[in-house]
Write a structure and sequence with these properties.
This protein is mainly beta and 260 residues long. The protein folds into two domains: 1-32; 37-258, TolB, C-terminal domain (Neuraminidase, 6 Propeller). 11% of the residues lie in helices and 49% in strands. The N and C termini lie far apart (59 Å).
Length: 260
Amino acid sequence: MKTLFKINYLLIITLFLLAMINSCKKDEGGDLPPVNPPGKLEKVDEFNLNVTEPSGLSFGADGKTLLMVSDNTNKVYETDLQGNIIRELAYTGSDLEGVAFNPDEQTVAVAEERKRQVVFLDYADGTEQERFDIVTGGNTENKGLEGISFNNNNKAYYLVNEDMPGEMIVWNNAFGNISTTELHFASDYSAIYVDSKNALVYIVSDESQALYKCDYNAKVLKEYPLPLTKFEGIAVDVDNQRVYLVNDKTAELFIFKILN
């Protein structure tokens, strides 16, 4: 009886070890499901822009225009929803990478990457009002602020630091950094948009060629593959499930429909 018990015990241990080995092989071989749940986008439209190296995107005052910046001319442009330029704001910045409209104050906030500063502009005439230094986790000159978006719920700005380290920073001019979250789900972070209506954050990665839908803590809820690299600006029409993206390399505006 003891011998039989011993054999059964050894058999159970052997089966357990085989299961563990098989599990490790799956981890190495990619048979496991992806870490981030996959989503699907459908391209609706694509427009050529007269803005070189467009980077950063936001809806304008009435939601019927777009604001975008050029990190070539360092200017801020307002366009229609097809990317046709309506006007050029007076301000000329330095290494502009992100833009956000604040409807409460009728201001435009732009992010200057290398200086790690947020600059506030008057929406009507585009003149500079004030600027603030942003504390990030690194000091690599060309791995700084890449995107900014305004959250109408908590009246704070959400910024992404590109890399070294990748970060999502929640900030306002009264308190400075409210929170800083290190990001580890992509190779870099090139744009951000806050969906205040649904308490979501959309973050773009140029190098990973993907769009990530996240909660307010930057936990990934869904990952959307993108057809190209160099997407560096995003705005989301949540009512119509449309994603607007500008591509720095091709100087184009893409519109996608969120399918799932």
